[in-house]
């Protein structure tokens, strides 16, 4: 019965598909960062990436500057079916450090968007970030001493329902589930989490578009049941974001965004520094985009973030400056 139902659904979606032309987009950015330990977390602190990064201890930050090359490639195609139009895309992104290759890593993102009508769409997404090196951190296991390598692999599945209410206003509801799995020395930080939140897209005028977002996220770590390690990174997260795209003139667009994130650590373990603690993150970014031709763009960007743990005397700051190009083939 189940196999018949699956077959009927697949046939319904793919019957006589009319495929559009497949397009490829390549992007290459060159960054200067003043802190390699926090660069990747800053880059992902946007609503469409992975804003709730793994817990970052202060020992993993302030690791010096570097130049980072960020190649990015996306393949897109679409086809019509009896339910509307399905659009598929796959994106690979890399981070290559000039002087600190241990931090090199890549991510994969796969999207499927089903447009039932011009006003109603559903997005399905899978995001994969394997073996992200976070730095050298304290090994808390009994009998262990010193600093060891800390890495994490993230798998995230998400669904987003998009509904256009008027010609200028669109609302979206995001929900996602994910896992973060660490190397053995930090297995107590293995976390399962879920997220829910609304997005709003408002076309204020022909030249101005505003976006507003809020996410609520709950994460539960293995460390909550291992009090002897005093390392429970379970949390409740509140994420708020506002972004604006402004067409300064023909072929020249300014994109700016402000993000705020509050991590309320929920550890109840006596002796855990996160017991009763919280983390505040504020980040601003600006991107200038020049459309040289219909298929070629130039980009200049700037990011500045500040992270403050309530149990730390000073905040951790990060500045990133970028220049790059993007092309569609």
Written overview of the protein:
- The protein is mainly beta.
- 5% of the residues lie in helices and 62% in strands.
- The chain has helices at residues 2-14, 39-43, and strands at 18-19, 23-33, 66-81, 84-97, 105-117, 120-138, 147-164, 169-182, 191-203, 208-221, 235-249, 252-265, 278-291, 296-309, 316-328.
- A 14-stranded antiparallel beta barrel has the order 2-3-4-5-6-7-8-9-10-11-12-13-14-15.
- A hairpin with a 4-residue loop joins strand 9 (191-203) and strand 10 (208-221).
- The model is unreliable at 1-16 (pLDDT under 50).
Q: On the 0-100 scale, what is the average pLDDT?
A: 92
Helix content: under 10%
How much of the sequence is in beta strands? Answer: over 45%
Q: How are strands sequenced across the largest beta sheet?
A: 2-3-4-5-6-7-8-9-10-11-12-13-14-15
Summed up:
With 329 residues, the protein is mainly beta. It is 5% helix and 62% strand.
SSE map:
Blueprint: H1 2-14, E1 18-19, E2 23-33, H2 39-43, E3 66-81, E4 84-97, E5 105-117, E6 120-138, E7 147-164, E8 169-182, E9 191-203, E10 208-221, E11 235-249, E12 252-265, E13 278-291, E14 296-309, E15 316-328
Antiparallel strand pairs: 1-3, 2-3, 2-15, 3-4, 4-5, 5-6, 6-7, 7-8, 8-9, 9-10, 10-11, 11-12, 12-13, 13-14, 14-15
